[in-house]
Amino acid sequence: xxxxxxxxxxxxxxxxxxxxxxxxxxxxxxxxxxxxxxxxxxxxxxxxxxxxxxxxxxxxxxxxxxxxxxxxxxxxxxxxxxxxxxxxxxxxxxxxxxxxxxxxxxxxxxxxxxxxxxxxxxxxxxxxxxxxxxxxxxxxxxxxxxxxxxxxxxxxxxxxxxxxxxxxxxxxxxxxxxxxxxxxxxxxxxxxxxxxxxxxxxxxxxxxxxxxxxxxxxxxxxxxxxxxxxxxxxxxxxxxxxxxxxxxxxxxxxxxxxxxxxxxxxxxxxxxxxxxxxxxxxxxxxxxxxxxxxxxxxxxxxxxxxxxxxxxxxxxxxxxxxxxxxxxxxx
Length: 331
Known about the structure:
- It contains twelve helices and twelve strands.
- The protein is α/β, with parallel strands linked by helices.
- The strands form three sheets. A six-stranded parallel sheet has the order 9-8-10-11-7-12, with helices on both faces. A four-stranded antiparallel sheet has the order 1-2-4-3. It has a two-stranded antiparallel sheet with strand order 5-6.
- Helix 1 (3-12) crosses helix 4 and helix 3 packs parallel to helix 5.
C-alpha cells in the first residue's frame, strides 16, 4: 500500500473517543463511508461477527462499542478497509478477514489457544468455524481425513496450508495434490497441448492455494524438484506413498473404485486427505460417485476422521453462503 493512499485515508478519517468503551470513526467522504460499511452494512456485520463486538453506522460515522483493546484493533481495521477501498474501489470478504487477523492471533496466543492457527510463510490462517477447527485438528492428528461440503468452506485451502507447514517443518518429504480429470460439460481431448497442459486447468485451484500461502518462485522450485507433486488421479494407481501428505480434491467426481485405490496408496508416515462437494458431481452417472459411500464405509475406523461442512462454514463472499443454503434447501 503506497504512502499516498495511507495519507489519503488518514485525511478522510477522524477518530473521536467518548470514553474507554466508545469510539466514533467520522468519515469526511460519504462514498468512502459507504464502501467501508458495505451494502446493507454487510462489512460491519462481518467485522462484528469476527471480533464479537458492536458496530453501528450513524450519519457520516461508524460507532464502535467494545473494550479499549478491541476498539484500537477495530480502529486499525476500519483504517485498513478505507485504504483498500481507496486503492481498489471495492472491499472483498478476504479484506475484512485480513483487517482483523492480527487481533485474532494475539487473542488466541493470550488465551493459550494457538493449536488451531496455521502459520505459513505469507500469512497465518485461522479456522473461522467449529467445523473448520475440527478439520484442522483432524488434518494434524488423523492418518486419513474425508471431508464433504459446499464450495468455499476451506476444504482445499486448509488442507494445502497444513500440508505446506508440515513440508517446511520437514515432518514429511513431499506434498501430492491430485484431482480426477472430469469435465463439467467439456471434453479433455479438445484441449491443446501435452498431458500436463491438458490437466493443468483442472488442477488450477490447487496451484492458487499454494501461491496464496508461499512465494511463487519457491513453489515453482518445489514443483520442479518434486517436493510438491501435482498429478491427475489416474496417475496414482500402483504407487505407495511414504512420508507424504496426499490430497485428493474434487473427490465427488471420483468413482468408488478410484477412491478406494487412492486411500490404499497410504504408506509409512503419510496422510491422505479426500475432499469433495456431493452437490457438484460431474460424472455421467451421479450414482458412480464414491465420496459419500467412503464416508459411510470408513467412518467407524478410529484412524479416519470424517468432517462435514455446510453453508455456515463458507468463508468466501457472504452471498456464496446464501446461494449454497438456497440450493440445499431446494434439493
